[in-house]
Design a protein that fits this description.
The chain is α/β, with parallel strands linked by helices. Helices cover about 55% and strands about 5% of the residues. It has a single domain, classed as HUPs (Rossmann fold), CATH 3.40.50.620. It is built from 13 helices and 4 strands.
């Protein structure tokens, strides 16, 4: 392990590789305990999370549902509950995966907020988008989608006096692969420190369908590149990112991309900057 690998892994509090199923089970219990403690410490009883149809939100959502079920059993208070929110932009091309994720999560309450109108309304009132190239405008609008989705989640959480869950984990954090004040905004992030492969291991342990566990990850924010795989945006694979974070040797090109991207995206992990 290089000094930079060790430094970055420590900064992101990366979880060591799981040795066996017992280690996965222990980690699941630890993260459920974290969710329950966070909710009770806030004096609140509702959790909210957007479910996209990918493995990250499916895993975080199922952990949230199990946590509130345990809280109800432990306290006798039926007010503890989890709200899973579908947040499509018009028609979702992977609708079948999103529906499968909702069935797996089995939330106490389900809601759908189609963000297309809000995104179109905001984009249409900002004149600064007009002079951009088609590709740049598509990219900026993608970030509007991510931020509108978080506004919707916080609106529901505010209505119920609850907390919003985020799905960030170490493999995304190291690449700065999230939208500031969009999917990067949340009250608690129960997957933090896990690499992508570990998120899949947890999902599989919780009983997620293999199609969700191994689904090709995509932020799916760009109209010009619908379903664009994360790895195409990264320039490296999640297997390489995971190996880097766990101190294993990776190809020099992948090493350089990960380190340079980590340094370049520092501003996204250290907000706000202060004197």
């Amino acid at each position: 392990m290089s000094n930079r690998q060790a430094e970055i892994a420590a900064a992101l509090d990366v979880t060591p590789p799981f040795k066996d199923d017992a280690a996965v089970a222990k980690e699941v219990e630890r993260r459920k305990a974290f969710i329950k403690h966070t909710l009770r410490s806030a004096g609140l009883k509702v959790l909210v999370l957007g479910i996209s149809g990918g493995v990250d939100s499916s895993t975080a959502g199922r952990l949230a549902q199990l946590s509130v079920e345990e809280l109800r059993a432990e306290t006798g208070d039926g007010a503890y509950r989890f709200v899973a929110v579908r947040l499509p932009h018009g028609e979702q091309h992977d609708e079948a995966d999103a529906a499968a994720a909702m069935r797996f999560v089995a939330a106490d309450e389900e809601a759908t907020v189609n963000i297309a109108g809000a995104v179109k309304g905001l984009a249409g009132t900002v004149s600064h988008l007009a002079g951009l190239s088609e590709a740049r405008r598509d990219f900026v609008t993608g970030n509007i989608k991510a931020r509108i989705r978080m506004v919707a989640q916080y609106t529901i959480a505010n209505a119920y006096d609850g907390l919003v869950i985020g799905t960030d984990h170490a493999a995304e954090a190291v690449m700065g692969f999230f939208t500031k004040f969009g999917d990067g905004a949340c009250d608690l992030a129960p997957l933090s420190g896990l690499v992508k492969g570990q998120v899949r291991e947890v999902a599989r342990f919780l009983g997620a369908p293999e199609t969700l566990v191994m689904k090709v990850p995509t932020a799916d924010l760009e109209e010009l590149n619908p379903g664009k795989p994360d790895e195409h945006a990264h320039g490296v694979t999640y297997a390489q990112i995971d190996a880097f974070l766990h101190g294993e040797k990776v190809p020099a090109e992948a090493y350089d991309i990960i380190v340079k991207t980590y340094d370049k995206t520092h501003h996204k992990r250290a907000l706000p900057f202060v004197p």
